[in-house]
Every structure is written in structure tokens, then in C-alpha cells.
Amino acid sequence: MPELPEVEVVKKSLKNKIINLSFRKVIINTNKLRYTINKNLIKTITNKKILTISRRSKYILINLDKNITILIHLGMTGKFYLVDKKNRKKKTSFYYKISTNDRKHNHVIFYLNNQTKLIYNDVRKFGFIKIISTNNLEKNKHLRVLGREPLSSDFNLKYFKKSIFNRKKNLKNILMDQKIVAGLGNIYVNEILHMSSLNPFKSIRKINDNDAKKIINYTKKILKKSIIEGGSSIKNFSNSDGKDGIFQQQFKVYGRNNKKCTKNKCAGIIKKRNISNRSTFYCIRCQK
DNA sequence: TTCTTTGTTCCGGA
DNA sequence: GTCCGGAACAAAGA
Fold it and tell me: A86 by DSSP, 3-state: which?
């Protein structure tokens, strides 16, 4: 699922290829994504130039001239294809275990002025595309509630301690809370807690400075590593038939119910439990 | 038919 | 007023 690293990789790969181009034409095949796509989208962005692309949390922001920003969330299965003049497809996102007749999920097609197409494809339709004003991004209802970026130096021990002060949630729910740290989803939170040797059910009140430091450092480390791996896998991917199977992230705990912990000298058993209706995987031996 | 997946929102209770 | 966790919701595939 696209969490922060995947979104970052998508942003980077788009950045190289569509900056300074304009939208020549837009076709909307399905207007019901998470939110109904505003019909004015076509009129608003046609002939507008793409100035910059950035990421905030799991959102992609494509900034156009005339103070227009396209705000995109990939939901669970959103991805972009770039199709060049020769109809060669370049995927800019990750491969999900969904294969049948991918083309019917091409919901929005952006025609660019260099004869390439940018296709938004989303099997589950939980993503969205919105037009917002570049002027007051900080007032946008999606963006204004977000906590700090985990990879920024702003996400540090002082901020983390302040954020969790007097809170009662367990560790997992704290890290899932977008108001505290923005961009982590279920998979990476599982991985971070495993690397930190901390039990996801543990109350946030019971962690010490050392635990907090571990969480912060492993958060940064794991996200950075995934961005690098994702980046290299995307770079190597390009084919015409869109045949999938490029890249499957390898996780240390996520999805490994009843398997052995891979940590040195541990070999405990990984168990799957539910926390707030989310699958939670942790080693019953080394995560205390 | 039922279960699964995620982020977000809503709601009752503390 | 605020916090918390559980449930519901979206769509489609297994």
C-alpha cells in the first residue's frame, strides 16, 4: 500500500518527467473516486503549466501556474502510469497483488503537451484528486491537521515527547495518528515497532527517552531505506505490456503471522493481532 | 456469501 | 472540552 516512501518515490519519478509540461487534454472515465471529481477539473487545468511537484505526508501536490494545485491521495491502490509516444508504459508506483484487466481501472487520463499521457489508475477507488488553491494550502482540510514530517529534523525527541504528553493510547495507535507524525501507515508502523523491540500494545505512558529515541531513529531509517529501494526498482522498470511483478517490498514482521522472528538471537514467533481493526504483527519474544 | 485491505469519519463512553 | 477505541464506509477480488 502506498505509504510515505511509496508516495515519495512516485513524486520523484513524476518530477523528472512532467515538470514544465502543460495539460493538453483531460479525460475522466470514472468520476467517483473517494470524492466525486469536480467537473471543473478539466477546464481548470487544461493548458496550465506544471511548475513543481511536492509531497506532504501521503499527499502529492502538483503545483500549476495561476495558483492552482492538484491534491492527490493514492488511497490503497492508486498509481500513476506514464505512457510515452510509442505507447510504452512506465509505472511510477508499486505493484499491488491485483492483476486482472488493469486497464478498466484507468480513471483519469491527463494528456500532456509532449504527446505523453499520465494515467491515474486505482482498483479500489479509495484515492482522490482535488483542485485547491495554492495560496492557502495550510487551510486545506486534509493538510491542516497533519503533524510533522517524519523525515524532517522537526520530528525529534522534543517534539515527540511534547506530542505524547498525557496521552493514553498504545504505541501503535500513537504512531498511526497523523496529527502526531504524518505519513506512517499500518505496514511501516509494524516494522518500526519491531525494529525498536517495542510491543505495539504498550501504553505510550510507559516508554522512556531511550524508547522514544529508538522509535524516532528507526522511523527515519526504515523510511529512507524504502525510498532508496523503491527508487531503484522504479528506475529499472519499463515495458510495453504493463506486465507486473516489479517490486515487492520485503517486510520483517508485516504479514509474517506464525513465522520466526528474523532478528539475531531471537527466533521468537510473530503473532497477528488486531489493534483498532488493523492487522498488527509483532514478535512475542523480543518486542517488550 | 463473507472476508480482507486502508484512511477517514462518526459516535458513545470515559 | 478532549480523548479514546470501535464501527462504518468506500470497491473489488479471492
Answer: coil
